Amino acid sequence: MDTPQDWPTATDRRQFLGAATAMGAVAATAVHATAVGVSSASAQAPAGTASRAPAAGPVLTRTIGRTNESLPALGLGTFLTFDLLPGSNRDALREVTRKYIDAGVRVIDTSPLYGTGEVSVGGFLSAMGVTDQMFISNKIWSTGDYLADESHALASMEQSRLRLWRDKIDVLHCHSLVNVDAIVPLLRVWKREGRIRYVGASVHENDYHNILAGLIDKDLVDIIQVNYSIFNRHAEERVLRAASDKGVGVLTNMPLEKGRLHKIVEGRPLPDFARDIAAENWSQFFIKWVMGHPAVTTVLAATSNPDHAAENVGALRGPQPDQSMRQRMARHMESIPGFANLSSMQWYPDKQSMYQGVIRRSQAALRQRMS
């Protein structure tokens, strides 16, 4: 059994829960690309707040699988990056949110599991007057007092509605496929009852890809969320192909590999051919690679840094890589020393002290009690 000192400092949720369990703490698309102008959400943002003007040109949008609804190809992720201790200064997170919205983003992914992130997202959107214009991706991580008991899941959803100040959640995912045999049918019922708009399932690890693909094959979900990056292409084997075949929307997470891709290219210039896809920085290079897959609807890119947010949103405009270019981009990365061993690196290298919200506080407290 691992000792607390042996635990990875990066927040790998499956490893963390596994370690806790060992101590007796059981834890319970095919797409079509179009171009539109900047979202009206930005036009309604309150004046007087400094914000970099969005880049010129149309915003890339994608159709959600078999639906007639389109979304911007970039969304804002919030795991860890938006988790702060109560009372902490949130100005940077507010500015990150504003920069995304000003650039035309209207997809935000959050979760009641993300510490205080859900509270901040709800507060920021309400203050900006854009809550009802946003496409909210949220999650359920729930079991119940007994098999098929919906009370815990219902309490979680109601809490999310309150925090986000939304009558209806756009897509609610069975997060990490926890209690999937009970939760997905429940989500389908909630959709029919008008509580949510779309049924989703989300994963962030390759081990769950086959199960996720099975849900797609059985027509049980409308939208899925899956980890996919220029480094980790495992989703291509089954998940993305199944989503394309079945017309299921695809949100992707970890396009920047939690800061590890940037660490690999630290101090390196972009390759000359990056100008062919109008990639002005490494963030756009990595995000556009993911956007270039025809099954991907929206790429969720997280950050707590407004300057990095300004870099990320540039990926919404300009040419996107075709298959030949994506292969060239991947070959370039494979030639860089350390790329092949990226998975052995901690999440957010050199930034561990930045993300010390309620999640990290609780983990540290449990490690202390286990020592």
From TrEMBL:
Show where the NADP-dependent oxidoreductase domain sits: 74-326
In terms of CDD domains, this protein maps to: AKR_PA4992-like
Q: What is this protein called?
A: Tat (Twin-arginine translocation) pathway signal sequence
Question: Which organism does this sequence originate in?
Answer: Bradyrhizobium yuanmingense
From which lineage does this chain's organism come? Bacteria, Pseudomonadati, Pseudomonadota, Alphaproteobacteria, Hyphomicrobiales
